[in-house]
Amino acid sequence: MSHSLNELQNLNGKTALVTGGAGYLGMAMCEVLAELGSNIIIASRNLDKVETAREKLKIKFPDIEVHSLQLDLLDDTSIKNLFHNINSLDILINNAWSGKKNSFESISNDDWEYDINLSLNSVFKMIKHAKPLLKKNKGVILNVSSMYGHIAPDYRLYNNDNYVNPPSYGAAKAGVIQFTKYLASFLAPEGIRVNCISPGAFPHKETQQDHEFMERLGSKNPLNRIGYPDELKGVVALLCTNASSYMTGQNICVDGGWGIW
Amino acid sequence: MDLKNLFSLKGEVALVTGGAGIIGSAVVEGLAYNGATVIVADIDLKRATDLANKINEQLNETTLHPIKVDITDEDSIKSMVNIIVKKFKKIDILHNNAAGKSNDLNAFFEKFEKYSLDQWNEIMNTDITSMFLVAREVGNVMSQQSTGGSIIQTSSIYGIMAPDNRIYEGSNYLGRQINTPAIYSTAKAGVIGLTKYLATYWADKGIRVNSITPGGVESGQNEQFIKNYSNRVPLGRMAKAEDMVGAIVYLASNASSYVTGQNLIVDGGLSAW
């Protein structure tokens, strides 16, 4: 058996693709995979943003290859083109997110469709394209869901409309959890493991400036605070490596205990 | 934050009950290899000592320390915790893992309609009351440490799912026909309840409490059973004790600093379908 996690988690020579890899949480995910030795492909809609992220990663981890590729998850051709440029893949992290704040009253059909397309449909399309490559390498898939994929937001937290969590978000993320389980079953014979994570409250830096809101948000979970991107590194290192070789179809909640009370 | 530090258990004192058992022996090795000082607590002191000596030799240092404990005996638990605190000054990690085997296998595997109250109470005592006692004693130590701690409790796939009794046809283990008795499911479901309760109860003390749910671990069952069981698992095999190590080290270390009250299911996907 492998004795230490260092051996179990070694990703030397592997290749990982992280959608939204230049974002607030995505960057931490790229960093942990790079630290474990994996080459990284960062894909994002904003090419300047991925290029900056690529340079940052290269400085920190000079020994690995980092590629930045443009990807518009709402554009089927863009997804297809992305995979024309990838010839080997061991790890796929479906992490990208973008969307508007909306309440149930304010959300339009278009906004609803946008959110479902981006947060759920694109996950299906990415995996469809990635599967042949992952099959070849007996790879892993990690989908990023959310605590709001299995628990409702407390509307009282969001009395300021600037932060309101749209109903489409949780619906899409719930879909991601179930889709993860579906794939864990159907891709098991191909040697592909599929898991997801449900981060709790990980507000962006700008949102963190609103101290009153941070206090309200933090007090909703037993650890009484928000989470920070580095706190997702451990779960990524667990689920994207052989340290979890007997785990598939799981959803790990990194939420300070939000969902348990 | 550097990953080596994130998962590193260097300088940490870890206590594993049932440390010389099937899962425990893989866990103590995993914790030791990631830098922890590990107390191997077991009712079988010789087995714990042999295991500790073996791994210490591999590591070329005295990292594992055997200790005898009877988890059905409150005084034995108290005395164990006292000895550990005296010697090591603290307990950072508890893997509340031990569960007792019945002394009377006929009574343990008896069908539900005839299950005796004595046997029910005995297993309740070894499999869940024992966890309460160990968590209480170690939690008392952890809540007085400024650094808090991490508690991991072993549940079971049968704490979250019902057994498919058809897989026991033609199966053989421990030299006899086996099944999963209701008391086992009941006690292991209790572990998850206790875990969540303690997670919020001790959150302000900096103690994180999570559980691990192993799928069936291959440990000498006959071929028919292994085949029957594996057939129910998406990954197509029974668990190995070592499969638990990654999840345990994750939960024990700072790598899971924002994770509490959770149940990590290491079951090859059994509960996903």
TrEMBL record, chain A:
Protein name (record): Gluconate 5-dehydrogenase
Molecular function per GO: oxidoreductase activity, acting on the CH-OH group of donors, NAD or NADP as acceptor
Biological source species: Paraliobacillus ryukyuensis
PANTHER family registered for this protein in UniProt: 3-OXOACYL-[ACYL-CARRIER-PROTEIN] REDUCTASE, CHLOROPLASTIC, SHORT-CHAIN DEHYDROGENASES/REDUCTASES FAMILY MEMBER
Family, per entry: Belongs to the short-chain dehydrogenases/reductases (SDR) family.
Xref: InterPro entries: NAD(P)-bd_dom_sf, SDR_fam
SUPFAM superfamilies: NAD(P)-binding Rossmann-fold domains (SSF51735)
Biological process according to GO: fatty acid elongation
One Pfam family here: adh_short_C2
Superkingdom as given in the UniProt entry: Bacteria
TrEMBL record, chain B:
Protein name as annotated: NAD(P)-dependent dehydrogenase (Short-subunit alcohol dehydrogenase family)
UniProtKB keywords: Oxidoreductase
Pfam family, one: adh_short_C2
GO molecular function annotation: oxidoreductase activity, acting on the CH-OH group of donors, NAD or NADP as acceptor
SUPFAM superfamilies: NAD(P)-binding Rossmann-fold domains (SSF51735)
GO BP field: bile acid metabolic process
Signal peptide limits: none
